[in-house]
Design brief:
Blueprint: H1 3-21, H2 30-46, H3 48-64, H4 70-141, H5 147-155, H6 161-184, H7 198-227, E1 238-243, H8 247-258, E2 263-267, H9 273-277, H10 280-297, H11 313-327, H12 333-339, E3 342-345, E4 349-352, E5 355-358, E6 361-370, E7 374-376, E8 404-408, H13 412-423, E9 427-431, H14 443-455, E10 459-461, E11 465-472, E12 475-482, E13 485-491, E14 493-496, E15 500-502, H15 509-512, E16 535-537, H16 548-564, E17 578-581, E18 587-591, H17 594-599, E19 605-610, H18 615-619, E20 626-631, E21 638-644, H19 648-651, H20 653-660, H21 665-669, H22 680-692, H23 696-710
Parallel strand pairs: 1-2, 1-6, 2-3, 6-16, 8-9, 8-14, 9-10
Antiparallel strand pairs: 4-5, 5-6, 7-15, 11-12, 12-13, 17-18, 18-21, 19-20, 20-21
This protein binds flavin-adenine dinucleotide (FAD).
Length: about 700
Amino acid sequence: MSKGKLILIGVIAALVAGFVFFDLGQYFSLDYLKSQQAAIDATFLAHPLLTAGGFFLIYVAVTGLSLPGAAIMTLAAGAIFGLLWGTVIVSFASTLGATLAFLVSRFVLRDMVQAKFGDKLKAINAGIEKDGAFYLFTLRLVPAFPFFVINLAMGLTPIRTGTFYWVSQVGMLAGTIVYVNAGTQIARIETLAGILSPTLIASFTLLGIFPLLAKKIVSMVKARQVYARFKRPRRFDRNVVVIGAGSAGLVSAYIAAAVKAKVTLIEKHRMGGDCLNTGCVPSKALIRSAKFLSHVKRAPEFGIRSASADFDFAEVMERVQKVIREIEPHDSVERYTGLGVECIEGEAKIVSPWEVRVNGQVLSTRAIVIAAGARPFVPPIPGIDQVAPLTSDSVWGLRKLPARLVVLGGGPIGCELAQAFARLGARVTQVEMLPRLMIREDPEISAMVLSKFRAEGVDVLLEHKAKQFLVENGEKILVCEHAGKEVRVPFDEVLVAVGRVANTTGYGLEELGIPVTKARTVETNEFLQTLYPNIYACGDVAGPYQFTHTAAHQAWYAAVNALFGSVKKYRADYSVIPWATFTEPEVARVGLNETEAREKNIAFEVTTYGIDDLDRAIADSEAHGLVKVLTVPGKDRILGVTIAGEHAGDLIAEYVMAMRHGIGLNKVLGTIHIYPTLAEANKYVAGNWKRAHAPQGLLKWVERYHAWMRG
Ligand SMILES: Cc1cc2nc3c(=O)[nH]c(=O)nc-3n(C[C@H](O)[C@H](O)[C@H](O)COP(=O)(O)OP(=O)(O)OC[C@H]3O[C@@H](n4cnc5c(N)ncnc54)[C@H](O)[C@@H]3O)c2cc1C
């Protein structure tokens, strides 16, 4: 804790101790006030400004220090200054004092509380950021909540100080008036409890709840308004229409059919979407062939004197297509029709909140799920049109290996494909404008990937910004800027992998006025509802993640909410999201890494285990990488895990399960892992954590016990 905070705590503690020690509480009682009223009145008449000023300061101090006495002082204000001035003085003094208490709590405690419980407080923080003023107003008006608790608790939340001040002032006004008014007839008051009658308490409570109710009603009216310009069909042909048959759309349709809803799935291109046709499946198939070649090159490491591979790139790419064909039946029209889904090939267009047009036919439906996916983003770099850039959509059509390939982008897709093409024999130059590959991961993970890439011959150019594409004497050149200088990279093909952009145009969103976010994804609420509560969006089109498993995860929420939302709606839960990048070393993550924990100011401990020490990894000649676990300081609760190494994407599953179900490192350690497996790394990192937290004091005594036992 900083020196400033310690001093502040010391000062406050001294003042509170002084209050208790000198029994100052006796001066804040009804009896004392009544007994001193004549003297106070005389002082006020003699020195009105001084009395008002002194009263104001004492009031601020009492509320600022969260001391008991504010209620009595409010009565006193009525007795001394009358209803108008009493109210004015108390209103400002109480708000100022409350704000001071709020600021002290924020300064001293907020960072600590947020660091310790930040992940648990996420929902509260989000709620306060969105509706903090409403909640505070309600709390201020409902007399059941003591004001000093509200001040201190609000200081721990992200509510803005200005908002806290004015909402407090307005929210406390009604109560202030009641008390000050009572104070004007102080002689008649016997107890403090009598001031607020049950009817008055109930009225305040209603008044407090009113803004929240009003907000709900406004949002219901707004929801009705967005539908106002459309005619709602009297009956619907379908329960739900799903647009797009990628991971998100397929799962949505599957769930709808499983619960016997009438569902139509519309796909304009290929069933299976990106993942099957141009994403996960082809990339992993290509990576497998490339990995085989890398093993051939590493033959001596396995005790094989020499090995060579004779291959044709076109055949490797044909294998990729064969893999797609083998998996295709899982996502086929036949399978889904068999499951009870009506599949339509064609381009869907939403024409009203309840109608979708496809192939000239208009389908009426209670709900719509948009699962239209994303496409590669091609940046508008001057000259890019002249060089016919490849993207993750088109690269699978290559049958001739480019001799010199530029991969633009150092994210997961760029990295996976750069390494695969290099292993297949292309001279790959990977260009990234940021200082690291895979920027979302921790720096040492990026460094591991970088060093492997460079060792395998990928020319990785970091902090190189692509400025222009040129064609000079028939040769394609990428011009980059690096440290203020121009760098020219000649190439035969360029693969652009600088991100993916959601498909949000051309199928009715613009006409319906469905908004998109800053990230250019369809805007949804936590239930995955768009502006029209019966139109949902999931998968890449909705973000925030762009993975097959997150698309499928969201699809469950979209489908269930679309079908059963009038009974019960579920908030999409993003608390434990894993992912992997299938480079070598493979990198997998769940939860926080160090970089994010620091950015979010969440306290953590790091425990690592080097896979270079693992028996199975050594036996496999794959002794590289690490498991890195972030835990709550002093506890075994897991905040996040990063694994770099062979089969990291599989190994992380144990930690995904642990985090999802609140299992800590002690339990991972207490679980039998088969020897010799890579999965043992998960246990060993838990062992490292345990050793670091061994009770040293106790162990000293145990050592003495053993010595004593030896005689
Ligand atoms: C090279 C690459 C590798 C990847 N590797 C992985 C990986 O290893 N693991 C992983 O989890 N993720 C990976 N991804 C990401 C993954 O492919 C996507 O996150 C996933 O496919 C998203 O699914 P989706 O259903 O949201 O969208 P999509 O799969 O894009 O499906 C959307 C579908 O909607 C259709 N559509 C759009 N508009 C209309 C319309 N108006 N009417 C009818 N149909 C329409 C499209 O034709 C498309 O078929 C990879 C992506 C790429 C590009």
